[in-house]
Amino acid sequence: MKGxxxxxxxxxVIATGAIAVAVGPMLAACSGGDxxxxxxxxxxxxxxQWLPQAQFAGYYAAVEQGFFEEEGLEVEIIPxxxxxxxxxxxxxxxVDYAIAWVPKVxxxxxxxxxxxxxxxxxxxxGTLQVSWADSGIEEVSDFEGQRIGSxxxxxxxxxxxxxxAEGLDSTTVExxxxxxxxxxxxxxxxxxAQAMTYNEYAQLLxxxxxxxxxxxxxxxxxxxxxxxxxxxxLQDAIWADTDRLESDEEYxxxxxxxxxAVIKGWAFARDNVEEAAQITLEAGSxxxxxxxxxxxxxxNKLIWPAENGIGVMDPAAxxxxxxxxxxxxxxxxxxLITEEPPASAYTTEYIEQAIDDLGDEVDTxxxxxxxxxxxxxxxxx
Amino acid sequence: xxxxxxxxxxxxxxxxxxxxxxxxxxWVARLRAAVLGLLGLVGxxxxxxxxxxxxxxxxxxxxxxxxxxxxxxxAMPHVWDMVQRLFxxxxxxxxxxxxxxxxxxxxxxxLGIATVGWLVGTSVGLLLAVLMQRVRIAEWGLLPxxxxxxxxxxxxxxxxxxxxxSRIEIAxxxxxxxxxxxxxxxxxxFFPVAVGALKGLQSPDRIHTELLRxxxxxxxxxxxxxxxxxxxPYLLPALRLGAASxxxxxxxxxxxxxxxxxxxxxxxxxxxxASGDPAKAWAPIxxxxxxxxxxxxxxxLLGALMRNYRRGEAV
Lengths: 381, 315
Description:
The complex is a heterodimer of chains A (381) and B (315).
Chain A (H helix, E strand, L loop, with lengths): L1 H30 L10 E6 L9 H8 L2 H4 L2 E6 L7 H6 L5 E4 L1 H9 L4 E5 L7 E6 L14 E4 L6 H9 L8 E4 L5 H4 L5 E5 L3 H6 L15 E5 L11 E5 H6 L1 H23 L1 H10 L6 H15 L11 H13 L21 H10 L23
Parallel strand pairs in A: 1-2, 1-3, 6-7
Antiparallel strand pairs in A: 3-10, 4-10, 5-8, 5-9
Chain B lengths: L2 H4 L11 H37 L5 E3 L2 E4 L10 H8 L12 H36 L1 H14 L4 H14 L1 E2 L2 E2 L2 H25 L4 H9 L4 H39 L5 H9 L11 H23 L10
Antiparallel strand pairs in B: 1-2, 3-4
Helix pairs in contact in B: 4-5, 4-7, 4-9, 4-11, 5-7, 6-7, 6-9, 7-9, 8-9, 9-10, 9-11, 10-11
């Protein structure tokens, strides 16, 4: 009941908004011939799934290095604070492209959003479940009866997919919602905490152990990488509006140009990881420099080497993600999706075109990619 | 009895003009307020450190629920660590500013947005109140919606506001992202003003409004001469609530929409760094408290300016 009332309210609000939307362009049209002041650049909006940080280094590098501009694009990168859901912003037409994890968007697609994965930038899952070295939690099958940390909001599905693959009942674990930091784990409220290789795991290694006064080291923890389990799901991908891809040739061209610049951006971040971290710091990341560099380096590891070329979907990984999404049941007995996504859910057409266009100009595979060694300082500073 | 008379050592002669004595009394009152405020601050710090010193490391639990927090340095950093952290550079980057400076800059940005939100919200609230007072049917029609408007959760509202904003473009002017934050703040701020002002405008005794009718005063004159002055004692608490709502709305909406320059974003970002740098996470909280104090102080100033209309109210 409350839902209906809320919907009515929102609909009313939207109707008011619609007037503003209708009047806005009219006024804009009246002013006439004022658009595109900087030459003939096409304006593109890219919605991120979080605040600026090195996880998105390739996009910021493409802006800073002028790769988008070379392609005739003026790209505005829009951060999110959490309530702005990238795939919703894209489906609403607020932005042209969005970065989001595959399982979350699969859920949105099943609920009616018409979106297409045009580039699977992260080829590997960066999610870990971290426990203390003496906890005895060494693999997913040890989760039973434990307090398992997760951020929720669609970040928890790998846990349930991995548990389903082990034949574990999701109701046997207690899911504890995690904060932005690792304090709940450090203080013993969580037995195994969710952590991204590029962020929260580093937070642990930046924290002094109160017993020794020294920073924690990898030996202090057990780490389960979902990438090594059947629960692994594809993460950061670039999504586009399916209808516009099908009907709007200009949008298709923009998509390929956009991807060419993105590839150059990520190749730059691979070959100049320190500079890439500097770029995201200047773009507004608030992490300390050692944490930012760690993040840039770990993000590279999720992308490179890209055997099929950066962004090209590995069908096996897609199938595994879909299978995991179908199998996963959360602790409240809910499913993420109940049927296979439509064929339009991903395409490699545009990214392959972009890779072809670039030819030898850029190394799009990175077969000899080597990560650097990053030393974390206390607090990431 | 004046302070001067009460104090035998006072150099002020008994025949001192009343104005002088009154002047001195306000200074004593101000000094006392400042000392009390400072004592309060010291008291809070003392309570914090005292509990941290004697409280159990695991906090106090009633059954499964923790009613008092843990006393570890992670959960409750020492007061001096938090203060010291404020004066250290925000990161180890060569050109990093001290933490207090970053928090202050962000707080000023947030204050600006909250002010815009408060002004818009107050104007809308006052207009609605006047409309509802004048037109009975508007009150019946609008008031339930105004109450209902506050039940829309921010998590649903924030994306909608930003979504419209991203579509509005008037004559080359694009909707800036801070405006989405201000709109959300004003949405929270207009409510207490509308409800409080309506109550205030309806507060004059019938005998007063009827007196004005015998003078053949117009509705506008009645509004100006009777209703608005009578509404002031109701309006001030409403404005104070509105200011608090605007500040909270700004900080929450900044987090919600991913606005980068305000104190809300620092709250989230530094919370993410609270494991390795626990004292840093408290800096934006101090900034947010400062925002609230400035907002409350501003409304208190307004109250002082409208002192003449606050008869019958304990000032």
